[in-house]
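Support reply, case 0932

Customer input (verbatim):
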Amino acid sequence: MSANTRSGSAAVSLLAVVAFVGPVCSQQPTRYIITDLGTLGGTFSSAVAANNSGVIAGSSTPAGDVVAHAILWRKGTITDLGTLGGPNSFAPEGASPINERGAIAGLSATSTVDPYAEVFCDGMGYPIAPYLCRPFLWLRGVMTELPTLGGNNAAASAINNRGEVTGVAETATLDPTCPPPQVFAFEAALWRPAKGEVQELPPLPGDTISGGNGINDNGQVAGASGTCAAGAIEAVLWQDVSPIDLGNLGGVTSNIAFAVNNRGQVVGQSDLLGDATHHAFLWQNGVMTDLGSILGLPVSLAASVNNQGQVVGFSQEPDSSNTVAWIWQDGVMTDLNRLIPAELPVFLVDALGINDRGQITGFMLDTLSGETRGFLATPAASSDSSAQTPESNVTKEPPVLPEKVRKMLERRMGARLHWTSPPN
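Our regenerated output:
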């Protein structure tokens, strides 16, 4: 597929912000510049992850908001990655669907209608169904379809710097325990495109399904294991294709690992005792730690962790309302909106990725226009005059999200709980 390149439709703006985001060695406030990344012409975009060169993968709607496409941001220019023949494609919210070469892994609709009418891949209110969903690898303007594990559908979630890709793929095995319209069993997959290989990553003993979400440069894969009837039950880490149960925070369902860094630190979500809600976790050295939440919001999720151990994610109500982005470091979770002076008409909704330079990606709400756009938060040098805005101590109240955004977040939460691939 050919890719289209264009400048973002919204004016790319640099909003200087200053924040103290927890104790650091220098005891100095961390200054940030927030870049509004714009869209393909529509009213929605989401920045999922940035590599260490600041090249960003995400998704956006073109004008009309009828479809959504995977995109790449580079130096103020947005490239539409196209699709595998169907209407929609996505760079999913895996640990990092982009590597240092600028290769992007994701999922796309094809032009073939699913003969079983499954809804295997769900998007940001822009579903893949009724078409087959297939994983892709995009590099230098070319989108290449990756194979399944014998079934009809699959999705790629993340790629490492060795070019290995992880995700989830259907097998050819019918599973009568799956809730309709799901028909086939599925397992975590490890693709090695350079060798033309795809390998199953098995579930834990006694489970029947699994899914991979994040992969590090050592080939370790973070994900989940469970049953088709119950969805994700255990958070797991695959080491040499063998799954390790990471434990839980007291609950017995909805335990999912989303990302793993090169130090073997794993982050994700885990149900609390009673399974009424889940919190973000950090797993290291065999111990799972509850990272808590912010602003009294009962639900939290850790989406990404860099090699310095900084974690980003979001907190929200169980119905996905009042969603707030945060960063966790040195034992402190901070509302990212405290980075923003109160007069700025934006609210950071989701923090989805953080690279080793500390750059944070996600999406924010423009409270004036109601548009939702991807952002990049870049730590600024102390000498950067554009980042001298005084620190804001104002805690912004989460805004009422537009109905379309709220429904998208609700769909995403449902996908998290019942399908082990990352939310889109």
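We compared this against your earlier run and they match. Two observations from our side: Confidence is low (pLDDT under 50) at residues 5-29, 385-391, 417-424. DSSP finds one helix and 30 strands in the chain. Please reopen the case if you see a mismatch on your end.
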